[in-house]
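During the no-cost extension, the postdoctoral fellow (Dr. R.K.) reprocessed legacy sequence entries with the updated structure-token encoder. One reprocessed record is reproduced below for audit purposes.
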Amino acid sequence: SHLMPLVLAYVRDHEATMDDHSRRSASKARQLSNVRLHVLAARDLSLVQGVAARNPIYIVRWNMREIARSEPVRHDVNPEWEASGIPTSSTRNKLLHECYLEVEVWDWNFKMAKVTDLLGTAKFSGEELMSIFEKGGKMQYVEVPLLKSKRLNDKQNEHVQGKVVVFGVKDEDIKRVPESKVPQGYRFDPDKGKVSAQKARK
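Re-encoded structure tokens follow.
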């Protein structure tokens, strides 16, 4: 009978260790939140002498480092980009809400094979960044105004106008999607203010 308390003590001790272990790994998991970002579209970009002669591309920076850039969409001031999600995550020393997302929209010059005019920039951190993923969990996108870049002067910022549409989703919110369908493409439905998932085109 004196064996019983020992066994219980061992089980309790083991449970405490397991609990501690799962707490530790949970905090680690919480530290590295994996997310996917989609820049779906831009709206009402500036015209060139009254003509929709822009070839917009986007550049995505995460914590100041470029992680993606799109193909240009030819002659469109309301471009929609078809691209699979841009995977990224929080870092060992930055929780997700401490990370910093910047989306820049530029005009691509095919002749010179480089970006020329800045069409606008959008920055997200803290609550603004988290709201992307909160809305993303409900299949809703975020639409924000494109602003001038502090890195450029007034002349370089003179073409900035319009909005950019961003969608982001945490990996845990995609878990119910079969792996065969990830990465997903998303179509955004401006009339409904929602996003519908579709398999990314091969």
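The CA atoms of residues 33 and 160 lie 33 Å apart. The longest helix spans residues 3-31. The remaining legacy entries will be reprocessed before the final report is submitted.
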